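for ur thesis appendix - Adenine phosphoribosyltransferase. copy paste whatever u need, i formatted it the way the template wanted (i think)
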Amino acid sequence: MADDDLARLAALVRTIPDFPQPGIQFRDITTLIADPHGFALATDLLAIRAARYRPDILVAVEARGFIFAAAMARVMGLGVVLARKPGKLPGAAIGVDYALEYGSDRLEMHEGMLSAGQRTVLVDDLLATGGTLLAAAELVGRTGAIAAAALCVIDLPDLGGAKRLADAGVPVETLIAFAGD
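the 3d part is after this line
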């Protein structure tokens, strides 16, 4: 993986100032997804990194994690389990509540999708504070499966998510980082 590849990916991410509130520099990954070469490069790089953790299945975190995990799973010959917001899954689900900067949220997964000892890699588009990925790791753990790693396209390192995940025993790998967010 060349630094040029990572610089190319970073250039495909659009920054939208003051969204969703003043002072936030929103990193919009939809411009990267819309670029066929950038999307393929990001997916390939994530799949290469995921393979190091020998996953049996990928866990996609709502919503943009679905996009990357599905493409990675196709390349890797794996399946995908969805970690969704509440009320989105039909049938029996297990869930975990987690804290946000301003309030709380919940992630859910269909019951019986993971089994004890199964190795998973969590996939999301962006790592900020790590709250959502920590909740996904907890959800995986409740099934007896193992959250072997978390992979994201973007890291906002100043928000401390990678450290929080590492402190919880979940290794993190990202492709690009934007400081100061």
